[in-house]
Amino acid sequence: MYKLTEEGRKYLEDGLPEIKLMLFLKKPAPLEQAKKTIKNFGIALMWAKKLGWVKIEKGMLVPLERPKTSKTQEALKNFSEGKANENEINLLLERKLIEKEGAVLKKAKALKGKTISTLTPELIKTGLWREVKLKPYNIEAKGKTIYPGKRHPYARFLWAVRRKLIDMGFKEMTGPLIELEFWNFDALFQAQNHPSRDWTQTYTLKHPKKGTLP
C-alpha cells in the first residue's frame, strides 16, 4: 500500500511547480522575475529543464514547449482516484510524492518507548505518540551564555598605564589629534637624534609643515 507524501498532497491540490512555471512563461521572461513570481522556483526550473520545456539564454527563461499538464500530474490524479498503474507508481516513487504506508509506521515504531524531544508527524498520524515519553521542558533552565564585546587588549594596556600615571600624581592633558613636534619632543627634553624622532616612528603632515606656538 502507498500513500501520498506531504509534498505529493500539496502538488495534487495546487499543481506541480514546473507546470506553474510554464503557465507563467507565455513568452521569454527575465530569470529574476520568474524567481520572484514562482513559488518553489528551484524545483520548478530543475524539472522544466529536465523535461526539455525551457532553456536559459542570456539571463532569460525561454519556453521550448507549452505543456498544460504532465505525466507526473496525471499520475498524481490517477493515484488519488485509485487508478494509477505500475509505471505511474514508479514515477511518483522516484519523485518521492508517494511512499509505502508501512514506512510511516516503521518510523514511528522505532521511537516507541523512547524519550523524545520532538513530536513528529508520524507519531501523531499513527497514534503512537501515546506510547513515547516526551522530554519535559525545564522552563527554569539557564540560557546560553552571551559574551558581550570587550575592549581591545592594547586599549586596555593604555588605560592601565594612564591609570598608573594619574595615581602617581601626573595630570591628564587634552590636545588636538595632530600635535606639534615641540610638545611631543622638545618640551619633553628629547634629544635631536633620539630614535623616536626618526621618520619610521612618527607620522608627519605634508601640509601644513609648520605650526604656531602659544
Distance between the termini: 97 Å
Question: What global shape is seen?
Answer: elongated
**Strand order in the sheet with the most strands:** 2-4-3
Rg over CA atoms: 37 Å
What attributes characterize this protein structure?
single chain, 214 residues, mainly alpha, three-stranded antiparallel β-sheet, two-stranded antiparallel sheet, 41% helix, elongated
Structural commentary:
- 13% of the residues are buried.
- Helix 8 (121-126) links the parallel strand 6 (115-116) and strand 7.
- The chain contains ten helices and seven strands.
- The N and C termini lie far apart (97 Å).
- The radius of gyration is 37 Å and the shape is elongated.
- Among the domains are: 17-69; 72-134, no CATH class.
- It has a three-stranded antiparallel beta sheet with strand order 2-4-3.
- The chain has 214 residues and is mostly helical.
